[in-house]
Amino acid sequence: MLSADTITGTVQVPRPRIEVPPTVCENLSPAAKSALRNEIEALLKARDAVLVAHYYTDPELQSLAEATGGYVSDSLDMARFGHEQKAGTLVVAGVRFMGETAKILNPEKRVIMPELAAECSLDLGCPAEAFAAFCDQHPDRTVVVYANTSAAVKARADWMVTSGSALDVVRHLHAQGRKILWAPDKYLGDYVRSRTGADMLLWNGACVVHEEFKGHELAELRAAHPQAMVLVHPESPPSVIAQADYVGSTSGLIATVKSGRAAEYIVATDKGIFYKMQQAAPGKTLIPAPTSGESATCHSCAACPWMAMNGLSKLAAALRDTTGHEIHVPRAIAERALVPIKRLLDFAAAQKQQIYGNNDA
Ligand code: SF4
Predict the structure, then answer these.
(1) Do residues 249 and 273 share a domain?
(2) Is 126 in the pocket of ligand 1 (CB under 6 A)?
(3) What is the rounded average pLDDT for all residues in the chain?
């Protein structure tokens, strides 16, 4: 018998085994933090660099990005912000595919990261060679990949999408009668398939953070907070998505907290986003969706272990000596990977819509 979170139609290949590192948070005294912040600010200026941080990184990094003229956002918006900057160096606090996307969109700039080993389970779970072989087996399908993939996987794709654009792009392709090969997140793919009715073959990947949210325990939490609005990122399992008042991208979740009438919000995504949510809606109560309970096998407890590798100490070290911190994407791969990224940007421009933070995903 299928569980509520079993996805049918996924690729029948085993998921690669992924070593999930423990989530290690930086533990610095206020004086040490302050000294590092001052040093990083000076180094950013000296290196003609701008700091762009993802919503899931430590609030210390997010606030530092804001304080130094940088930016906090989702992955594609981070790369686009970088493109608009005069600075010659982009410092990307996030995970590796974000650094790669920034480099692909800004080949003339230097892109450095606090920790190149900061990966993503979706990216790790979709190795380029295995994915290319799978694509070769289904030449009749349009290949659509999520932003959370390596440059090499993007280079094999026809389209890249974000969580905020996936529904619009797939609806567009479905209306043209296209069949889709989707990778790597099976939960996001299943959500898009259920909303669009498109013929989608799904890769068997998942985010180790969002996969931990629990439907049964969420129902209990909702019962305890009947007035709360439930906000869910679509990388979550179907039993969690089914209980959402709003399903959306990181930017969309923040916008909904800001505009929503409810006083309380149960949030199913990485806890790092609470920094921006509190900033956007200071009077509102945010409640983390449950990752524990009877069915818990918590790897992450709503804190991405790879995002947590970004800290003030590592950021300062990367700026002191960039050796081992710079992102390089082979030119042939970068040029090919730019095609599906550009297709999304052009599609969004033609649709005159925002590709993230809309009301769909
Ligand atoms: S939260 Fe999930 S999708 Fe985001 S970087 Fe971490 S593992 Fe990847």
Answers:
(1) yes
(2) no
(3) 92
